Amino acid sequence: MAIFKKKPQSELSLSDIILPEHIGIIMDGNGRWAKKRGLPRSAGHTAGAQTFRKIARYCSDIGIKYLTVYAFSTENWRRPKEEIDALMRLFKDYLTEAIRDFKDDSIVLRFLGDRSAFSDDLLALMDENEDESKDREGMVLNIAMNYGGRAELIKAMREIAAEAVDGKISPDDINEEMISNHLYTKGQPDPDLIIRPSGENRTSNFLLWQSAYAEYVIMDVLWPDFKEKDLDAALIEYAKRNRRFGGV
Ligand code: IPE
Ligand code: IPE
Ligand code: MG
Q1: Largest Cα–Cα distance in the chain?
Q2: What residue ranges define each of the domains in the chain, with the CATH number in brackets?
Q3: SS in 3 state form for 52-81?
C-alpha cells in the first residue's frame, strides 16, 4: 500500500497516507452502548445517529469521495416494533434536517436498499434529499436502509433474467460489469475499507458483491463512542495493509 513518506509506522498520521476512495461503515453497537448505561436500546440509536452526523461530516472534510453507512438491514425487521419505530423516527429526523438545514452542503445523498417497506412520508423525504443533492460535487453519502447484500443480488438476477427472457441479452453476456450495473451502488467504485465497530467479526449481509477485495477493520469501540480519532486509526491501519487483489 502506498505510504508517501518513509516513517516508522507508529508515527503515521493522515497526511502521510493515501486515503481510501470509498469507506463502508457497519454502524454497530448502539444496543450494547445503551445497555451498559441502563438505558433503552432506542437511546443507543439516538446516540448512534449523533455519531453518524459527526463522522459523515468528518469523512467529507478530510476528502473521502464515497461513504456508505449501514443503517438498517433487511434482517433488522426482526427487532421489536418499538425499536423499529424509534429507528424510523431517527431516519425521518435526519432527513428532515438534511433538507431544511443543509442547503449549501456539498454532500450527495443516496439510499441503498429496498424502499417498498418504508412509509410514504419517509419515502418522500428520501426522494427529496436525493433530488435536492444530486448535482452537488462533494462526497457521496450512501445510507443503506432496508439493505441486504443477498436481496440486492436477487434484485440484480431478476432484472438480468428478465432481459434474457426478452431476448435483449444472452446468458454469455453476463459479466462482472453487468452485475455491478444492477446493484444499488451502480456507477460507484467498490469500497476499499469497511469498518465495523463493536468488535463483531462478520459482514451481516453488507455489500457482499462490492466488498470482494475490501480491507476489513474491526474495532472494539461501540458506535455511539466512535470518534474522529477512531476513524483516523482505521485509515492508518488500512494504509499499512498490502492489497494484492490476487496478484503477488
Ligand atoms: C446497530 O446497533 C444499529 C442497527 C442495527 C440498526 P445495534 O442495535 O445492532 O447494537 P447492538 O449490536 O445490539 O449492540
Ligand atoms: C448490522 O448489525 C446491521 C446494521 C448495523 C445496520 P446487526 O447488529 O444487525 O448485525 P448482527 O445481527 O449482529 O449480525
Ligand atoms: Mg448489532
Answers
A1: 59
A2: 3-225 (3.40.1180.10)
A3: HHHHHHHHHHHCCCEEEEEEEECCHHHCCH
H/E stretch holding 174 reads: none
- Coil, strand or helix at 73: strand
The alpha carbon of residue 59 and the mean position of all alpha carbons in its chain are separated, in whole angstroms, by: 12
Pocket of ligand 2 (CB under 6 A): 26-28, 70-73, 76, 200, 202, 204
Q: State the Cα–Cα distance between residues 107 and 87, nearest whole angstrom.
A: 22
Instruction: Identify the H or E element spanning 205.
Output: none
Instruction: Find the ligand nearest to 42 CA.
Output: 1
- 205 CB less than 6 Å from ligand 1? no
For 57, the 3-state DSSP assignment is helix
Relative to the alpha carbon of 204, which ligand is closest? Answer: 2
Instruction: Give how far Cα 2 sits from Cα of 67, 106, 236, 240, Å.
Output: 21, 28, 11, 8
Condensed to tens digits (0 to 9), the pLDDT of residues 232-243 reads 999 999 999 999
Find where cell 445517529 sits.
Answer: 49
Residue 225 annotated in active site: no
Rounded to two decimals, what is the model's pTM? 0.96
19-53 confidence digits (pLDDT tens): 999 999 999 999 999 999 999 999 999 999 999 99
Which residue of 74, 198, 200 sits with most ligand 2 atoms within 8 Å of its CB, as the best mutation to test the pocket?
200
127 is catalytic: no
